[in-house]
Amino acid sequence: MTMELVCPAGSPAALAAALENGADAVYLGLRNPTNARAFPGLNFTPEALRDAVIAAHRRGRKIYLALNTYPTPEGMALWKSSIDAAVEAGVDALIMAEMSLLDYAIRHHPDTPRHLSVQGSATTPAALRFFHEQFGISRAVLPRVLSLAQVERVCEKSPVGIEVFAFGSLCIMVEGRCQLSSFVTGKSPNCHGVCSPAEHVHWQELPGGRREVRLGEVLIDEFEAGEPASYPTVCKGRYRAGDALFYALEEPTSLNTLSLLPRLAQAGVVALKIEGRQRGPAYVAKVTNVWREALDSLGLQPQFEVRPEWQEALAHVAEGHQTTLGPYHRSWH
Amino acid sequence: MKISLGPLQYFWKKNEVLDFYRAAAHWPVDVFYLGETVCSKRREMRLRDWLALAHELSEQGHDVVLSSLALIEAESELSALQHLVDNGKFGVEANDLSAVQLCREGGLPFVAGPTLNIYNHETLALLQRNGLTRLVLGADQGAQQVAALRRQTRLAGHPFPELEVQVWGRLPLAYSARCFTARAHDLPKDDCGLCCQEYPEGLLVQTREGQPFLTLNGVQVQSAQCCDLGPELHDLASHGVDIVRIAPQRQDTDGVVQRFADAIRQQHPLMRHGDCNGFWHGGAGMAQVTLPSPH
């Protein structure tokens, strides 16, 4: 069975880029805090979502809607009405993490498939059984923490199809369980759909062309003149631990699993997810294009080979222009 | 209001662990959470050792709960979890949904640990139907969320479970597959040499200008700051907090426990000894919110 290519879109232009370049499915969010990329100017109104569904279905592709943040009691009406709006727009699946929302969706819209979001932090067959038995999920996205051998094991025993992250910015913490942003800013991916929100980010020029960046009042990093600087999430800053000053948690880098494609297919992974709803249409076009070619060639060649031009194209759009196999490879751990 | 000792977050030698808890048996602690919640490679204390300790404390009249690993990756960890759930005597603090499911499959009640993401009353009720009897509030949650949870639970006509809140200690902020302590030693995780044992209270991370910021503790990231809700004791009581949780630390845990016990007995809030309380007040976790003077 071929793996489905699931690509991100934060705007109609990015959606068009994904569809033109061969995405099998595109995942979107509504323009409100119900999804984990709730950035200003990004995402879709209910009308734009309807248009997106029509455009995708015309090409025989799918639209998934991410509703993967965690509402407090005050927010529940908005989250539930967003589920209703998504179903009304005709989306092909809802990507959710929060139990009460999954429960609402299966009760009110049983015919719309439910995927467990990466934010659901499910890493074992037991946790997947929980979501399958309780909410009838048909697919789950695994957090980016498991090694390839562990992914293979989960695929064997999972009651539902497994989707994994294939490319994009690398969250190194278990998704759904990271409070680093809220520790500093009070705003979290779980509750507010943001990590290191822009209004808390302060860049300052220093003498000699150097720059520093703070999140709130916390110094995340300093850069030499001309040194490339990445977005200041807490996990990708440079700090002191012991005697060393270094990226104590992770370098600015992107996940890239192109070389693992045959093993992921062999493991029975049903879908590959590309990260990056916050990125522009050019990123979506390039990444979708490379992955489409790679996936198509996987079925044709007896021996899958990663073409250098693919890697070059992906490195070009990667965070820090470097990529890693991340947690799939044991040495990363 | 009761006092609990949360699960030990750090990797101590077996005799240090046993000495700590044998001393703690004489402190005014009502509930002990025992077990390894951070890394399955920490095997100074095996499950049988934790169980023996649990029996010891239980025979001395303490409530004991066995805490499960927060991040389960390997099959071996899942079968260890099954043994923990099947212990036949002690309740389990479920720190991920694998543990919830195994308790559910065994028809056993469970304590919902702080990493289950229970942010609203519907999810709370759903888990109560599946065996949740006590809720440990998530590190990022605070007074306003508790009030909303209680209000909505009451409106729905459901009972509210026992509520527990961490009032002292470094805050657990994130978990990863990566071991950050091994990374700081430039060692691969699979050959880590158990270097986290060198840091009985974790490895301090400072910003480039020397501000204490985070604590590396194996695959867990904690705050560098010590959360302290001692001055908020009245507020905690008025929000119906049943149990206050103190995180074990190497130094002066007995002093901390005694301070909280005295304050609870005298119904008198404490002076601030720790650093931060921001999450309880609905803001950034590292913030220190000054309470209005009672006078």
Order of helices and strands of chain A: EHEHEHEHEHEHEHHEEEEEEHEHHE
Record field, number of beta strands of chain B: 11
- The share of residues in helices of chain B is 25-40%
Could you report the average pLDDT of chain B, rounded to the nearest whole number? 96
Q: Could you name the ranges of chain A where pLDDT drops below 50 across 5 or more consecutive residues?
A: none
Q: Describe the biggest sheet of chain A?
A: 8 strands, parallel, barrel
How big a fraction of the residues of chain B is strand? 15-25%
The CATH homologous superfamily of chain B is termed Aldolase class I
Enumerate the spans of chain B where pLDDT stays under 50 for 5 or more consecutive residues. Answer: none
CA-based shape of chain B: globular
Q: What's the structural domain tally of chain B?
A: 1
The CATH first-level class of the largest domain in chain A comes to Alpha Beta
Q: Count the DSSP helices of chain B.
A: 9
Please tell me the CATH architecture of chain B by its name.
Alpha-Beta Barrel
* Rg on CA atoms of chain B, Å: 19 Å
Structural class of chain A: alpha/beta
Domains of chain A, number: 2
Number of helices of chain A: 11
